Amino acid sequence: MKSADFKILEAKKVPYHGEKEEPKSFRYKLKRFRNYLLFLLAYFAPSNRVRITINRWKGVNIADGVYIGTGVFIDNMYPEYVYIEENASVNANTMILTHFNPFQHFKNVLFAGVQPVVIKKGALVAVRSIITPGVTIGQNAIVSAGSVVDKDVADYTMVRGNPAKKVTEFEFLMK
Predict the structure, then answer these.
(1) Consecutive 10-residue runs of the chain (175 residues): their mean pLDDT?
(2) In Å, how far from its chain's centre is CA 31?
(3) Is the pTM of this model over 0.85?
(4) Separation of alpha carbons 65 and 167, rounded Å
(5) Which of 12, 56, 135, 160 has the fewest beta carbons closer than 10 A?
(6) Angle between helices 48-58 and 26-44 (to 10 degrees)
(7) What confidence score (pLDDT) does residue 173 get?
(8) Are 86 and 107 a contacting pair, CB within 8 Å?
């Protein structure tokens, strides 16, 4: 699969926790259960190829040449909002979140919605990092271990910390 084939979904609102909403259909509940089982299989899978395949079954958009480490959590509710382009690396115990639905009393402060997460070509997300909804990690960018990324990361940039801040920009020499 090529990243050129990706059609990035638009952000959308979801109900706040506690807001009156329509009862969930059996089909919706079945999808959630299926995604949870696939998450467990991918989480403990012994090889990258198996983790990639299972996450694709779940709906994650993954291009060729991607590495996904063990213990990676990719949003179960809206996995189709995650896009990982060619030769990107998402290392062990990283979390990629695409949705947020806080309690209703936070309505005036926080947005309840789903937003796409895009990890561009050649990007590296180091161990135990957290990528929040709506973030794009730029081409060949580096997210240091344990970082919490809540804003876009530019191409050829290294970020680290909580919240992640730019450490340096660099040139990428490929031979």
Answers:
(1) 84 84 82 93 95 96 96 94 97 96 89 95 97 97 97 96 94 59
(2) 19
(3) yes
(4) 27
(5) 12
(6) 170
(7) 56
(8) no
CA distances, 170 to each of 4, 46, 74, 136, 141 (Å):
25, 34, 28, 18, 9
The verdict on residue 8 lying in a domain is no
Contact at 8 Å (CB) between 73 and 38? no
Q: Kindly state whether residue 36 falls inside one of the protein's structural domains.
A: yes
CA 80 to chain centroid: 10
Structural domain boundaries enclosing 120: 24-169
**Would you state the pLDDT for residue 144?**
97
- The position carrying tokens 């680290």 is 160
Place of tokens 């929040």: 132
Query: Is 105 within a domain?
Result: yes
CATH number reported for the structural domain that contains residue 39 in this entry: 2.160.10.10
123, two tokens: 């990007």
Distance CA 35, CA 173 (A): 39
Q: How far, in whole angstroms, is CA 30 from its chain's centroid? A: 22
State the Cα–Cα distance between residues 10 and 20, nearest whole angstrom.
Answer: 24
Q: Is 7 domain-assigned?
A: no
Tokens of 148: 């919490």
Angle at 96 between CA 64 and CA 173, to 5 degrees: 50
What pLDDT, on a 0 to 100 scale, did the predictor assign at position 174?
Answer: 53
